[in-house]
From TrEMBL:
This is Cupin domain-containing protein. Residues 32-98 form the Cupin type-2 domain. InterPro entries: Cupin_2 (IPR013096), RmlC-like_jellyroll (IPR014710), RmlC_Cupin_sf (IPR011051). Pfam families: Cupin_2. It comes from Actinomadura violacea.
């Protein structure tokens, strides 16, 4: 067992905006933060992904749908699907889980 301290907590974004807290071959867990008014510059990932909104408000947009999200929202994005957080009205903090681990499938 391991307690993952700080996962999902708001912190001013650093280079890359993503902080990985835990990595095993089958999954990785981290935090992704976007400040209010900020832009989400991510590209589609090669792994399935779950976001849990821990703070803030925004809109998530994919080619097939869009939705307003806030604290408690849980979002599943399948591998390869384009997605972006837009209209970030409050500092957005996301607990992110990748399966398998982020980047492990290559491009």
């Amino acid at each position: 067992m391991e307690i993952i301290k700080g996962a999902g907590a708001w912190a001013p974004p650093q280079a890359g905006d993503w902080t990985e807290h835990l990595r095993t071959p089958d999954l990785s867990v981290g935090t992704y933060c976007i400040p209010a008014g900020g832009a989400d510059g991510q590209s589609p990932h090669t792994e399935d992904e779950i976001y849990v909104v821990t703070a803030g408000r925004a809109r998530i947009v994919t080619p097939g749908a869009a939705a307003e999200v806030g604290p408690g929202a849980v979002i599943f994005v399948p591998a390869g699907e384009e997605h972006r957080f837009t209209d970030v009205t409050e500092d957005l903090a996301l607990l992110v889980v990748f399966g398998p681990a982020y980047g492990s499938r290559g491009a």
